[in-house]
Write a structure and sequence with these properties.
Layout: H1 4-22, H2 36-49, E1 53-57, H3 63-75, E2 78-83, H4 86-98, E3 105-109, H5 112-118, E4 125-128, H6 135-145, E5 152-156, H7 162-173, E6 178-183, E7 189-194
Helix pairs in contact: 2-3
């Protein structure tokens, strides 16, 4: 279970990020972090699954990565988190260092599509929370990288931005190698489990 210091710091960070986002007119300038109840649910899933390898696509300022890393320390896992903007990745790294979580996280800066194409490692747990318009182009690589027989992919914002992810979710639902369900936490999580 996350300790009190971690929970207090993450709560304060979430409030800071929310205040920042409220001042931004341009969506791209917002940090757009996952909601606290969704983040805690992911932490619980990692613990339940006893994940050893975790991939996050869309670090932003690191709010979700911190939750993933805290759970990863409990299971002995390693995380790779991908972010296209170097400034945000560096910001996330500073929070990880502050909370002594940096040893569990590898920060990768660049285009997620490039990383996914060249990746060979399979992952127990993948969180997809990036630019939704690119998701359909990720699917062929993602399904190759999800560990067979119980690997999990979580897609965020599937209720709040249902129209934007509809095509992608339909692609996944049509693939008989995966089971899926939608979970009504935060902005909506789509859970994909490899058979």
């Amino acid at each position: 279970m996350p300790n009190r210091e971690f929970l207090l710091r993450l709560s304060a960070l979430y409030d800071e990020f929310q205040q920042h986002d409220a001042k931004q007119c341009d969506r791209i300038q917002r940090f757009r972090n996952i909601e606290p109840d969704s983040a805690q649910f992911l932490s619980m899933l990692i613990r339940t699954q006893q994940s050893q390898s975790i991939l996050e696509i869309g670090t932003s300022t690191g709010y979700s990565a911190l939750w993933l890393a805290e759970a990863a320390q409990a299971t002995g896992a390693q995380i790779i988190t991908l972010e296209i903007e170097e400034k945000r990745s560096l910001q996330a790294q500073s929070y990880a260092a502050e909370l002594n979580l940096e040893s569990s996280i590898e920060f990768w800066t660049g285009d997620a599509a490039e990383y996914l194409k060249q990746a060979t490692q399979t992952f127990d747990f993948i969180l997809l929370d990036a630019e939704r318009s690119y998701y359909p182009t990720y699917w062929d690589d993602l399904k190759r990288l999800i560990r067979k027989n119980g690997g999990v992919l979580i897609v965020d914002n599937v209720i709040s931005h249902a129209a934007e992810v509809k095509e992608f979710l339909n692609m996944i639902k049509q693939d008989m190698d995966f089971m899926t369900t939608t979970i009504a936490f935060g902005a909506g999580l789509f859970m994909v489990v490899a058979k």
